[in-house]
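ERR on first pass: missing label on line 2. Operator R.T. fixed the label and resubmitted. Corrected input:
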Amino acid sequence: MFNYFDDLATRQLSGATLTRHEALAILESTDEQLLEVVAAAARLRRTHFSNTVKVNYLVNLKSGLCPEDCTYCSQRLGSAAQILKYTWLKPEDAVAQAATGIRAGASRVCMVASGKGPTDRDVDRVAGMVTELKDQHPDVEVCACLGILKEGQAGRLKAAGVDAYNHNLNTSESMYAEICSTHEFSDRVQTVEHAKAAGLSPCSGIIVGMGESHEDLIDAVFALRELGSDSIPVNFLMPFDGTPLEGTWLLRPAACMRVLALVRFACPSTELRMAGGREMHLRTLQPLALHVANSLFLGDYLTSEGQAGQADLAMIADNGFVVLGSPEAATQQGCGSQSSGGCGCHGTHDAETSSGANPTIRRRGAGTQLAPNA
Ligand code: SF4
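pass 2 clean. output:
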């Protein structure tokens, strides 16, 4: 029987470019079609990334106190969100924080600082941290996220050993003025281009759930495709109390899945990260999302807590995926799984069996005086 999304995946695998019409079909697909959409997107994901999951770890080098007014951000000017506020971490503390994530399996550390953009002194400060981090962990990838870059700053970061630069487009160009008045969409595009020109791997993504239309989403994702982003973090709005988007709850888990699928179809071989807000918006569909996205942040976000890092790792293993860079992933590379799109090493990387904790005896509901569990 003809399956539109499977056929679309076949065409993407043959090198077709996703059209607006097809993008809209993904976003407008029904809940009944969700598994077809996911299965088709999963073919693309498996072809390009096998069963590996890239684990990234965030270190917030400077929190809050930003002069910009991005409406979605808890660190914005005038934010009343009760977040941690601090100025630059000491280099040794930044390196120690990063090392924790690396020990847990992160192959990329994202070093982030709030603010419109760095001064040259800030760039030197981050460069020093990166040099120290790379001395201790030469294999780790470092992504810097410091805001809008001025001429020459991307090159200095590159020279210090930074591998990638993150600057999200966040939404469509036509919607940008609704979410920020202190800088423009073009400033963001320009910074990604500066980073790219300096040889840094461009990382740029979106935030979903700010009231954007399907057309806005498609515009944003196609802009990222045009920009050549090497990794695309898809964030789901976390509407912090004390920010203008407080109380904005517009997302359903299935809709979040469709956005991830849209990105996968539009940019099949690009790293796709299920980023901030995945726990609260994908909810019980998080494991399903691993079949579309091939990357996540481990543990906590910049100003909010994520689920336990160990729960992230268990979710990866329980669903038959392996952490990129782990011994399990290396074993599979030897068997050709990267090229075949599936691993034949059955049983070598299974999740642990359940740990043997005894069932908890029911002492509530029927047969007791206590309320049932419902
Ligand atoms: S520039 Fe960055 S830190 Fe500042 S308000 Fe915007 S998103 Fe938040």
